[in-house]
């Protein structure tokens, strides 16, 4: 198939066949990463720039490794403490980078919509590595890949997304993707951590883990930012853990073979008990491995789409 | 002095309940005769223009205009705003005090008046800050500011947080008969929000501003208006619960009035689409149900005034991610054309529209204008209510181009604007040179 997109800005713009294509490619990429010689020539000669306006160790490393395994030249721009802090606008940064003629830009930014705005101003492919509370498409794809490889399918599975949905781009991308693939999505959180209109977002809403986890096939925990733990959204860490932290007793309500997932980095003892995070049902480490594969698949697919149809790439 | 006769016009002047075909006789910049029989009183040989059935209305009076002068002249000057106003049929405007420095001192009122007199082609009246620096902590010199020519006391974009401060300011303003005109948004409840709270904001991942942020702040101010007896004007409302609160306060006999921006009568939150920052406004654009309910509240007179809420912003404050951009859209040039959408849709009768755009604001703030009665200054707009056109960015005369109506289609256009009888804008000639 010809992948019909020039950027990956969100799951929202992807159709079911697009998603399946990326997951299939990612399955193949997993094999590459498990070889002794992990280097391919797929993106040889291509330049990849990782532009992270919000600092991130894991996602940036994952994209860097994915690019290197595809043979691209990878450069990391730590924008969080550079000219952007000195008042240069996002657009100016985009135009500056564009002039350096990269082939692919990986962008994370703290504001929703910022990556799409930047994509309008550059000629290369842009991958959204997280924009505010909007979308984090590669995370949703790697979650889907992890689930599919463990359960054999996505359709009709009950997936409970638990925790800070309000501030979570991971939750939004996952809700869209899982719905597109025919899964049944639940969210479980105190109402202070749910966005307005959540019941109309294609999910069943629960406020008690005891209700929301019942018969779940997948339990997806979200990270709670430290600044939200101490009174602004929930009263305290210990209260949050007691009611919304995933421990053995709560997990027992889910199906016995339920997967436990977390996008990382985890707060052990806040949203998830340590023994669960390291337990037999946890696929958290597998998610990290799938992350590299999904990012390889995304970059390779975008480059191939542009090579097939270079006209859409831009005028110059 | 200007002497001219406009014949064959449909004259709509709600200030005298007039909707008839006739003539407008202007002598020495004033209306000398108006109506079906006015042409007969014209002197021999007077400069006559046959309007061929076009509509003549009193020039619009815009009560909420932000201008960048002083301090942000790259966004808008008093002169450039006045030229934008002339294109929109606006002959008088009230300039908000949130400039840099803030208009909280007599010398700044003087500055605005001098610039208005020397450089503006329409009448520009300053609003004075209600509190020093708009900080909401200390009253300004109401008496001196009003004597100097301020026509409104306003805290600009900011709602005074301190309820006791607001009470004292309103109590003191009452003695001067001044209108305290305020934006109403609870700063705690709206904290961090950038658009209407709801499903649409949730999908965009943007923090929302609940409607209650407006309702709570408005209800507080209406209570204070009742307590103090002050004249109070809510500058820009956006939800029907606010209109209901104003309605009951009026019914209780308090001296309160209310306004709404044209944006909130013609656009809704879905216009934001994929993070279009020109639609980032304060208050935020609400739902389509809210928009329609507010149009009904304008039609029944609960909402007295329609303003442009003109707020020029340059690329440095708008070409940013949505959450990082400034609020505001320009609106002077499109005020009348956009308002005519409500007439064409049948939501608001034409006479009521003109009343809300011209007569009522002049009446509330005690400005000349807003009427074509004999003896009044001949401030008027000549409009074709059906003229089809599209707003192109290149045609915008404001220094800033942040229009929420870029590339929008309109039916109805201002063809000519007169201030004191003299044409300050003719669609077929453009603006007078500068």
Automatic annotation (TrEMBL), chain A:
It catalyses: carbamoyl phosphate + L-aspartate = N-carbamoyl-L-aspartate + phosphate + H(+). Keywords: Pyrimidine biosynthesis, Transferase. L-aspartate binds at residues 86, 169, 223. The keyword Hydrolase does not apply. NCBIfam families: asp_carb_tr (TIGR00670), PRK00856.1 (NF002032). Catalyzes the condensation of carbamoyl phosphate and aspartate to form carbamoyl aspartate and inorganic phosphate, the committed step in the de novo pyrimidine nucleotide biosynthesis pathway. HAMAP family: Asp_carb_tr. This is Aspartate carbamoyltransferase. The gene is pyrB.
UniProtKB/TrEMBL annotation, chain B:
GO terms for molecular function: dihydroorotase activity. Keywords: Hydrolase, Pyrimidine biosynthesis. The keyword Hydrolase applies. It comes from the Bacteria. InterPro entries: DHOase, DHOase/Allantoinase_Hydrolase, DHOase_cat. It is an enzyme of class 3 (hydrolase). Residues 55-240 form the Dihydroorotase catalytic domain. The keyword Hydrolase applies. Its EC number is 3.5.2.3. Pfam families: DHOase. PANTHER family: ALLANTOINASE. This is Dihydroorotase. The lineage of its organism: Bacteria, Pseudomonadati, Pseudomonadota, Alphaproteobacteria, Hyphomicrobiales.
């Amino acid at each position: 198939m010809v992948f019909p997109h020039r950027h990956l800005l969100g799951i929202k713009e992807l159709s079911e066949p697009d998603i399946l294509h990326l997951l299939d490619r990612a399955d193949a990429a997993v094999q590459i990463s498990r070889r002794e010689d992990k280097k391919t020539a797929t993106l040889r000669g291509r330049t990849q720039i990782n532009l992270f306006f919000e600092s991130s160790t894991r996602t940036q490393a994952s994209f860097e490794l994915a690019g290197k395994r595809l043979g691209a030249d990878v450069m990391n721009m730590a924008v969080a403490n550079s000219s952007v802090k000195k008042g240069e606008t996002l657009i100016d940064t985009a135009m500056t980078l564009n002039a350096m003629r990269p082939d692919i830009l990986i962008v994370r930014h703290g504001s929703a919509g910022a990556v799409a705005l930047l994509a309008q101003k550059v000629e290369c492919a842009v991958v959204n590595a997280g924009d505010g509370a909007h979308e984090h498409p590669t995370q949703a794809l790697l979650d889907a890949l992890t689930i599919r490889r463990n359960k054999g399918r996505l359709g009709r599975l009950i997936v409970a997304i638990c925790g800070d949905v309000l501030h979570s781009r991971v939750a939004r991308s996952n809700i869209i993707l899982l719905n597109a693939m025919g899964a049944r999505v639940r969210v479980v959180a105190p109402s202070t951590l749910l966005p307005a209109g959540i019941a109309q977002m294609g999910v069943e809403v629960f406020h008690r883990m005891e209700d929301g986890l019942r018969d779940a096939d997948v339990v997806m925990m979200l990270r709670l930012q430290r600044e939200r733990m101490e009174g602004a959204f929930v009263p305290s860490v210990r209260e949050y853990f007691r009611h919304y932290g995933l421990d053995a007793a709560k997990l027992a309500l889910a199906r016995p073979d339920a997967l436990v997932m977390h996008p990382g980095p985890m707060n052990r003892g806040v949203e998830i008990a340590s023994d669960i995070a390291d337990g037999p049902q946890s696929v958290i480490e597998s998610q990290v491995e799938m992350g590299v594969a999904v990012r390889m698949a995304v970059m390779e697919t975008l480059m191939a789409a542009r090579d097939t149809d270079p006209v859409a790439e831009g005028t110059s | 002095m200007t002497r001219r006769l406009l014949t064959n016009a449909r004259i709509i002047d709600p200030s005298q309940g007039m909707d008839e075909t006739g003539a407008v006789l202007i002598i020495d910049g004033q209306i000398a005769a108006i109506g079906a029989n006015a042409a007969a009183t014209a002197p021999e040989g007077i400069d006559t223009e046959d309007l061929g059935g076009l509509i003549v209305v009193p020039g619009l009076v815009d009560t909420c205009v932000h201008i960048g002068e002083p301090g942000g002249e790259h966004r808008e000057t008093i002169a450039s705003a006045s030229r934008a106003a002339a294109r929109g049929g606006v002959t008088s405007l009230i300039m908000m005090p949130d400039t840099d420095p803030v208009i909280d001192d007599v010398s700044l009122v003087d500055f605005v008046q001098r610039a208005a007199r020397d450089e503006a082609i329409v009448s520009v009246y300053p609003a004075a800050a209600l509190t020093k620096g708009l900080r909401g902590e200390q009253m300004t010199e109401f008496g001196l500011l009003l004597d100097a020519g301020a026509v409104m006391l306003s805290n600009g974009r900011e709602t005074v947080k301190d309820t006791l401060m607001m009470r004292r300011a309103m109590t003191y303003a009452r003695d001067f008969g001044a209108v305290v005109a305020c934006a109403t948004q609870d700063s705690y409840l709206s904290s961090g929000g950038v658009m209407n709270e709801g499903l649409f904001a949730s999908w965009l991942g943007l923090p929302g501003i609940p409607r209650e942020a407006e309702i709570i702040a408005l209800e507080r101010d209406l209570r204070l208006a009742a307590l103090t007896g002050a004249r109070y004007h809510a500058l820009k409302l956006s939800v029907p619960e606010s209109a209901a609160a104003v309605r009951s306060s009026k019914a209780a006999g308090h001296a309160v009035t209310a306004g709404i921006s044209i944006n909130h009568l013609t656009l809704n939150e879905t216009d934001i689409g994929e993070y279009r920052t020109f639609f980032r406004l304060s208050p935020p654009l609400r739902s389509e149900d809210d928009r329609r309910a507010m149009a009904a509240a304008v039609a029944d007179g609960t909402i007295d005034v329609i303003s442009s809420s003109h707020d020029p912003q340059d690329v440095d404050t708008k070409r940013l991610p949505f959450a990082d951009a400034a609020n505001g859209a320009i609106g002077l040039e499109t005020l009348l054309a956009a308002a005519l959408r409500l007439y064409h849709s049948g939501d608001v009768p034409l006479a009521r529209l003109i009343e809300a755009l011209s007569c009522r604001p002049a009446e509330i703030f005690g400005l000349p204008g807003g009427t074509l009665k004999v003896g009044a200054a001949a401030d008027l707009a000549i409009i074709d209510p059906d003229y089809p056109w599209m707003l192109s960015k290149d045609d915008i005369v404001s220094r800033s181009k942040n229009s929420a109506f870029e590339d929008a289609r309109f039916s109805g256009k201002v063809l000519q604007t007169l201030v004191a009888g003299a044409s300050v804008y003719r669609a077929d000639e453009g603006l007078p040179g500068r």
